[in-house]
Amino acid sequence: MGLFVIGVICNLVLADLRSWHRQYLDSIRIINWAFAHRSEFSDTLKLKATLESMTEYKGKQTTLWPWSTTDNMVFTAFAILTTVPVIFGLAGISSLAVWLRVAIYIVVLGVDMVCVFRYLNFKIEQGLGYKTWILNFDYYSPETVDVFANRYMDIKVHDDIPTVYQKTGGVVTVPTQNGRVVMIRIQRADGHEHWELPRGYMETDDADHVAAARRELCEELNVRDGDVVSVEDLGLISSDSGLIVGDIHVVAVEVGSDWSAELQSDEGIVAVQLFDLAEVDRMVRDSVIIDALTIGAIGKVRARR
């Protein structure tokens, strides 16, 4: 009888191990998924929320039967071996008819199988509902605090380091006419006027960065579709990769000879002027132009020549 008790305990331990194995597989799956998709998340808290949603158990575990998988068949074999000592341990059973001894063994085996497989199903379902320990690692990282948010950006502070997350992306346009660069002089937050290239955030109606560039030029310089000769997206640029997470593109726009600038004072623009590239270079060198996005966009144009 002692061997039977030991066998039952071993079956219960195996069920616990199956549950832990389920959790281990979930942990490996989470690690692999997080590694494969790490570039899609700039915020660890958003990544963690996604992983928690993935591991949330929303259904009922499919019942495990003795013959359903290799693991279950091994578990069944162990349960059968567990009940064998019962036959030899029952007093007077040897004097019974063979069919009666077989019936007793089947009953004992059936009760044992029902008990251990109910426990196994319980432990597996418990394992599926368990929030894997992998997710707890992020709990020990410094808290991220939301500082500011509007339709264009979120500002967060993580471990005393602020980060600006742009929601919509943006464009820096490089309008040219007959080889000369069209620049605006605009009042900025530092209280000074600066020579810059037209730029702005993307709006929800903008199909892409090129569409956003066309809209910005229309708003700031009154450039209509009929004035545009050619448009080219020159690719990404960043004003400060250590502070800002965004999707800003440089878009070169050539306008026709018939276009003439119309000052849009409601945009804060105080002057519009055309400059040769050599003159723009001098203005950058002499710190007349100090805007990082403008300097970077001019560099993009120069690199394409």
UniProtKB/TrEMBL annotation:
Cross-referenced Pfam families: NUDIX
Domain of life of the organism encoding this protein: Bacteria
Keyword line: Membrane, Transmembrane, Transmembrane helix
UniProt domain Nudix hydrolase: residue ranges: 163-297
CDD domains: NUDIX_ADPRase_Nudt5_UGPPase_Nudt14
Gene3D superfamilies registered for this protein in UniProt: Nucleoside Triphosphate Pyrophosphohydrolase
PROSITE patterns noted in UniProt: NUDIX (PS51462)
Signal sequence coordinates: none
InterPro entries documented for this protein: NUDIX_hydrolase-like_dom_sf (IPR015797), NUDIX_hydrolase_dom (IPR000086)
Protein name: Nudix hydrolase domain-containing protein
Record organism: Lacticaseibacillus pantheris DSM 15945 = JCM 12539 = NBRC 106106
